[in-house]
Design brief:
The structure is a homodimer of 274-residue chains.
Chain A: E1 2-5, H1 11-18, H2 22-28, E2 30-34, H3 36-44, E3 49-54, H4 64-73, E4 77-81, H5 83-89, E5 98-103, H6 109-117, E6 124-129, H7 134-146, E7 151-155, H8 164-169, H9 173-176, E8 179-182, H10 184-193, E9 197-201, E10 218-222, H11 231-234, E11 239-241, H12 254-269
Parallel strand pairs in A: 1-4, 3-4, 6-7, 6-10, 7-8, 9-10, 9-11
Antiparallel strand pairs in A: 2-5, 3-5
Helix pairs in contact in A: 3-4, 7-12
């Protein structure tokens, strides 16, 4: 049964829009997933989807009914919204008629240990300290997925990983990649326990990133947009590297910098030389 | 003389906020520059600043008076706003008390020829086709500055380079780097005339970007976030390259992809090998 919703005052709609706020997400342990691509990846990754709002008039493709059926099969309640209601729910420029309420995954460092021990490769992780902008964090996840990194640890979070703009900028890789929120202390202990070296990107390093050996088990450490890494984290780094800056600006966008380091690790690991 | 503004209804304030809209920017040939770092770079680059709004209560540093004095010296009218007025003018989360109205630079392909002929290096350019998101375009400019690229050509624009979010994401490198808006036809002709090879990033290329020779005069060609490159542009490319994608997602953020290609060109040109 698909329940129709014709009023934006529907309590379910009000609850969904309240989840745009971190306070509500933290209090309820739920969050929003909007968009076909994002929901497709959430569904593949068996994220628990509580409710799904659909609006046929806003569909952009032909595969929506199949995805809705797949999600419905797992016991999700589906609501059919009239366009003006869906447009209130949506936080996108181009709504595509699909938005869900899901349970937060709450992946832990322990889960990450499990997935590492199931992998045959040399660990490649990202530790992101206090990233502020959800778009940057999502873009970092998208790049981490692209190089098949083993996971991302978000430390002392400024933005929570369930922010709708993280989900969007990650294009759903938030669901397919282990992403852990943890405090700095636990993360440092966990990395030591797994003998994973911390490689810090800092403008003060003597060595450029293309000259640092990233072929061993390594966690690439990146800091906030405004302030970079804190001394506490920098003091833990076994490797330090800088990205050459030849222009007037003194830093790159944090997601750009992270992606450069990830692809450099990939290039080195695959032994690709020009 | 610094003129005080105590009301958000002041016509100068109204005019400034109207420049958030592209229609107004296109009609007037003016745009907004907000923030110390951005204004500092605009001032260095001799961008014509028409009016400057300041709000001492919002200053974050100690160098603002010196910058204001430097800008004032060039004949700019300065307005001192009370905080509630400045907060209306600002489009940032953290206003820092400086916002200006400036004349669009309107750099042309001809200007780019001039700056290329003054440079001793092998040309490295970016051609961006129809980028939609201002944040992406600004981040591309920031990375282009970082590798000391010779310029960025924005073709068949979807977002104009004077969008406030381009200025912000570029951290002011929009002013220090030649950035040209041009149509595709003229750009292709110009590149041929200067014997600059077009290197297209496309997922269908046989060769990875680290295996393509980017040491000659080259323009890195990137397409829209949604659709990639159009056939018209792809058919012009002398070089094609792809970025390895090992995860579930089929593409990177467009600014991330561009930055990877730029830094790969830099790595090859500097002969850096691990």
């Amino acid at each position: 049964m698909i329940e129709p919703i014709t009023s934006a005052k529907n309590p379910k709609v009000k609850y969904a829009t309240s989840l745009r706020e971190r306070r509500e997400r933290d209090a309820t342990g739920e969050f929003l997933i909007e968009g076909y691509r994002e929901l497709f990846r959430a569904c593949q990754a068996h994220v628990a989807i509580d409710s799904l709002f659909v609006c046929e008039e806003r569909f952009l493709g032909a595969n929506e009914p199949a995805l809705i059926a797949a999600i419905k099969k797992s016991g999700t309640k589906v609501y059919a919204c009239v366009p003006h209601v869906f447009d209130k729910l949506s936080y996108r420029d181009r709504p595509d008629g699909l938005l869900a309420i899901a349970k937060q995954m709450k992946t832990s460092l322990h889960d990450l240990s499990t997935s590492l021990s199931a992998s045959s490769g040399v660990p490649l992780l990202i530790v992101a300290e206090a990233i502020e902008k959800p778009g940057n964090l999502g873009t970092i996840l998208r790049s981490a997925d692209a190089v098949a990194a083993d996971g991302v640890i978000v430390c002392d979070r400024c933005t929570d990983i369930y922010n709708p703009n993280v989900v969007r900028a990650s294009t759903g890789t938030l669901f397919t990649l282990p992403v852990v929120e943890a405090d700095g202390e636990s993360t440092i202990g966990w990395l030591k326990q797994h003998r994973i070296a911390i490689a810090a990107a800092t403008p003060h390093a003597a060595t450029e990133f293309t000259d640092v050996d990233l072929t061993g088990p390594v966690a690439i450490l990146i800091g906030t947009e405004q302030l970079g890494l804190t001394p506490r984290w920098l003091s833990q780094a076994e490797l330090e590297m800088r990205i050459p800056m030849l222009g007037v600006a003194d830093s790159l966008n944090v997601a750009t910098a992270t992606s450069l380091l990830l692809y450099e690790a990939l290039r080195q690991r695959r032994g690709v030389h020009v």
